[in-house]
Amino acid sequence: MPDFPIVDAHVHLYDLDRLSYGWLGGVPKINRSYGLADFDAARGAVEVERFVFAEVAVDPGMHLGEAEWVQDLAKVDPRLGGAVAHAPLENGPSVEADLERLAALPVVRGVRRLIETERNPAFVLEPDFLAALRLLPRYGFTFDICVKSWGMTYAVELARRCPEVTFILDHIGKPDIRNGLREPWWSQIAELAALPNTLCKVSGVITEADHASWSAEAVTPYVARALEVFGFDRCMYGSDWTVSELTHDYPVWVAVLDQITAGASETELRAFWRDTATRAYRLAAR
């Protein structure tokens, strides 16, 4: 375990009394509200100095309400240093009204529009989506790319077409660890890392392995590949809690990553566990 407080770049919280999440009906294990006290109980002895909230796919039309709820949480817990909110970028330039409302919330640092759940992810290359993406730097927002391995080609293309936008790859692009596949993800993550406007979250990896029989040995090559191509100064730790509860307890992922990064220097470790996320999400600025 790191001997200094860490920054968690990807935490999910939700309140079923205030917001609706239709997708939770399919995952009964985590189908309940999770708040700040639950996060503290889950992290155990892991000292988390700051964390970033990641949008939780609320039902349509509720994304601004979710962001406002998170802003309320940030007022009572300064550890919640940033948030990645949902924005319907497929609406094109008209999404600017939403971006203006999100920018009025000090906690919001970036946006995400889930791609992994779409049957045809090619919609992200449509003119309207690209036009909306190019508005993000105006508000100082990053864009979190959440794709499964079969959608990595779209991640690469987005970063190429929008060099003015900072892209953060969620969950190392969700490689197919369950089936032991490396390509084309293995090559495509290197293509993405070669673009200077990209960063990578080392999060949500175990849940891409077999849920019943995953092992540290199974996930290690994929994490090592992400660290190899992006480097420690462009990778950041993320727990993907609460989704991580489907396969493991919070401290388990920290222990796995601690083992994988055992040969890294102090500077590299601090970049991975703290500095990259702090820089990317401007966590020092309140």
The gist of it:
With 286 residues, this protein is an alpha/beta fold. Helices cover 34% and strands 14% of the residues. The longest helix is centred in the C-terminal third of the chain and has 15 residues, at 216-230.
Molecular structure report:
This protein has helices spanning 36-43, 63-76, 96-103, 127-133, 152-161, 185-193, 216-230, 250-260, 266-280; strands spanning 6-11, 48-54, 80-86, 108-112, 142-145, 167-169, 198-202, 235-237. Helix 5 (152-161) runs parallel beside helix 6 (185-193) and helix 6 packs parallel to helix 7 (216-230). It is built from nine helices and eight strands. The relative contact order is 0.15. An eight-stranded parallel sheet has the order 1-2-3-4-5-6-7-8. 34% of the residues lie in helices and 14% in strands.
- Give the DSSP E fraction (strand runs of 2 or more residues): 5-15%
Helical coverage, percent range: 25-40%
Number of helices: 9
Rg to the nearest angstrom?
Answer: 17 Å
Shape: globular
Major sheet: order of its strands?
1-2-3-4-5-6-7-8
Class per helix and strand makeup: alpha/beta
Number of β-strand runs: 8
- Which spans have pLDDT < 50 for at least 5 consecutive residues? none
Average pLDDT over all residues: 97
For the termini, the CA-CA separation is 28 Å
